[in-house]
Amino acid sequence: MIRKRYGFDGFKDSQFVQATAPPDVANLLVKGDVEAVLIWEPTTTQLIQAGAGRIIATQQQLWEQASGSRETQVHVVYLTTPQIAREHPDLLADINAAQREVAVLWQNKAPQLVDAFATVTQLPKEVIVEALDRTTPLSGLREETIDTILTQLKFNREFGTILQSDIWTDPAKAAQVKQEMFVKVG
Hints:
Order of helices and strands: HHHHHHHHHH
Structural class: mainly alpha
Number of strands: 0
Radius of gyration: 19 Å
Strand content: under 5%
């Protein structure tokens, strides 16, 4: 998205610096070893609250500018083979139900969710609460969400370095993928 919107190729126009975990990325920025980072929540909020960084652009802002879509960009997708989906529809239904439950907890900033995040990340609860404000939980596969995922895959094929198959640029093949890839579960 940065390449399409700004003509900046993160792979060619910058130097890649390896970090093994979000705290390592944060430390590189704080120590001045790097000028910018690509990082996700809740580390972003921790850096902002500490005065160690500022948001230049969010992934959602870049997505909207580059794609023209106002739909929320999808960052996590659970995939399985069509065979597993057919053989275990209860598993898929349980995953969808759990995702819906987490989305509700997220939107309500439920104390048990904040506590769980704080325990796992070892970050202060105020960082977690602010990070929850900066993110949009999704649950379920509305047609718009499915179309956004497929648009992202096509976008990555056209402007990225992955998904070199032409299936994403052929509307008929993309429709077939949509049919095979997204199983509706109750």
